[in-house]
């Protein structure tokens, strides 16, 4: 949301959890987002987005959930500066960029 300091969305891929994790890591790298920590056991990737004119940077938490026909990917982007109340759409844009990139991977 425009007036919020965080945004979340989900994305489904017809891939195993480990394949989905590799896709997400590659997407973050292509988007110049930093991978901070990967917890393959729990299906969690933590990342960071550098600061810009619109924010002091964002924290990403990406959770994989194994499903019968693939993996559900929950993507959460949040401003990392505690006092920042508005993100000017930056978190939604981060999530959209990630899901758009994952879509291109899935289409290949």
Strand-helix topology:
Elements: E1 6-13, H1 17-30, E2 34-39, E3 44-49, E4 58-67, E5 70-79, H2 90-107
Antiparallel strand pairs: 1-5, 2-3, 3-4, 4-5
Short description:
This protein has 108 residues and is of the alpha+beta class. Helix content is 30%, strand content 37%.
- Distance from N terminus to C terminus (CA atoms, Å) equals 31 Å
What is the H/E order?
EHEEEEH
Overall mean pLDDT: 92
Q: What is the helix content? A: 25-40%
What's the arrangement of strands in the largest beta sheet? 1-5-4-3-2
Number of strands: 5
Q: How many helical elements?
A: 2
Largest sheet: 5 strands, antiparallel
What is the 3D shape? Answer: elongated
Kindly estimate the percentage of residues that lie in beta strands according to DSSP: 35-45%
The chain-level structural class is alpha+beta
Low-confidence stretches: none
Using the CA coordinates, give the radius of gyration: 13 Å
């Amino acid at each position: 949301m425009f007036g919020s300091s965080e945004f979340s969305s989900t994305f489904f891929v017809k891939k195993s959890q480990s394949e989905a994790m590799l896709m997400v890591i590659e997407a973050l790298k292509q988007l110049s987002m930093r991978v901070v920590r990967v917890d393959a056991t729990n299906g969690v990737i933590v990342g960071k987005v550098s600061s810009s004119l619109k924010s002091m940077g964002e924290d990403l938490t990406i959770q994989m959930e194994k499903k019968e026909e693939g993996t559900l990917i929950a993507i959460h982007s949040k401003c990392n500066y505690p006092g920042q109340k508005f993100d000017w759409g930056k978190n939604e844009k981060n999530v959209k960029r990630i899901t758009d990139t994952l879509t291109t991977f899935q289409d290949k």
